[in-house]
Design a protein that fits this description.
CATH topology of the largest domain in chain B: DNA polymerase, domain 1
Strand order of the largest sheet of chain A: 4-5-10-6-7
Radius of gyration of chain A: 18 Å
Number of helices of chain A: 11
Radius of gyration of chain B: 17 Å
Largest interface: A-B, 27 and 28 residues
CATH architecture of the largest domain in chain A: 2-Layer Sandwich
Oligomer: heterodimer
Helix content of chain A: 25-40%
Strand content of chain B: 5-15%
Structural class of chain B: alpha+beta
Largest sheet of chain B: 5 strands, mixed
Number of strands of chain A: 15
Order of helices and strands of chain B: EEHEEEHHHH
Number of domains of chain A: 3
Strand content of chain A: 15-25%
Strand order of the largest sheet of chain B: 2-1-5-3-4
Helix content of chain B: 25-40%
CATH superfamily of the largest domain in chain B: [2Fe-2S]-binding domain
Distance between the termini of chain B: 56 Å
Structural class of chain A: alpha+beta
Number of strands of chain B: 5
Shape of chain A: globular
Number of domains of chain B: 2
Largest sheet of chain A: 5 strands, antiparallel
Order of helices and strands of chain A: EHEHEEEHHHHHHEEHEEEEEEEHHE
CATH class of the largest domain in chain A: Alpha Beta
Chain lengths: 272, 167
Amino acid sequence: MYATTYHKPKTLSEAVELFEGSEDASYLSGGHTLIPTLKSRLAAPQHLIDVRNIPDLASSIEVTADKIIIGSATRHHIVAASKEIQAVVPALSGLAGSIGDVQVRHMGTIGGSTANNDPAADYPSAVLSLDAIVHTDRRSIPAEEYFQGLYTTALEPGEILVRVEFNIPEIAGYAKFRNPASRYSMAAAFVSKHRDGHIRVAITGAGNEGVFRWTEAEERLTESLTAEALEGLTIDPSRMMGDMHAPADYRAHLVAVMTRRAVQNLGGTHIL
Amino acid sequence: MSRVTITINGKAETRDVEDRTLLVQFIREHVGLTGTHVGCDTTQCGACTVHLDGRAVKSCTVLAVAADGSQVMTIEGLADGATLHPMQQAFHEHHGLQCGYCTPGMIMASVDMVRRHDGELDEHTVRHELEGNICRCTGYHNIVKAVLDAAGKHRAAKNVAPVEAAE
């Protein structure tokens, strides 16, 4: 990678000041998306601002009667192993446990994943499906306003993601089909039935604008939360990514299959 | 440039390094411990796996400066003098390597796995949790046998210990 200068601020304001005082800076959390990006020279920020030392982001999991609140710097293996989360939303802890591999899960964080919004990332589907609120150093953004396209979120330059607050659903399931070589998601579906009855189907890995809600599937599942209710429902391939890992029509097929599998695995995960 | 101190295999190592220096470069090039390998560009192969503050991580994807003040264990830190670590012994006995390039990473990942599961491992779990380590030579089955053997020895050592304490 190109030369860069590393900083480890101790407070949110110090971090933001460093960012705003630099011509070209990136925040660094677990680094397991950013550092590979820098190594391949796809990006070359002059300043890396490591946010893991900031108390506001600290690794933390709070489960209340209605919410799961996770600090940005919380690593995937912690969420995966959390008995509190397993007890209420096993699809969420299962999702975290399916990210990358053991070594990646020992470093990667929910804040980094959510702030980056990689189209193949897992967490954005849970954030969208569980109607989460993304709390930053300056405001709170509801999920439906947060995701704005490939690698694009509502975060302003310098804004730091501090906590993610998920609603606990009545039940949820996560199904993912990984590319057998790269292990990245080619299509994944996070299906939730919320306590007031509304259904959310969030698709990741497949859409050409990143994570999205499959509203037609939501309508079908509102009538009946069964795989049968989705029979015959297809998604337009023109909405899908097509690349060397999978053409758009194959992704469209996988999206429909994974949505059915998520419904068949409510209360857990189905990871292929 | 930053002054970075990392305790590697129990010994504090201080070097002045560029901030872009990866932990694997610090270990290999600055400290001279070349048992940890670089096998890919994409954080996939796991040949660089070390223990960072007790957990298996891919050292090619951690900045040395970000690991300042940390404890690192590399493959060189496993043996006790001339006595191989039980995992190393198991890889030897079960022919869990051919060219040996992935082996340090496989062993470090496997030691971490046995510790996390306290030796309670089955074949399915071993294969699943070695997904971060790629081997081109062996087809994995002798690696899996080695890890299961070491896990079994870990369990046996757990069961033996209370009896020894009573004596």
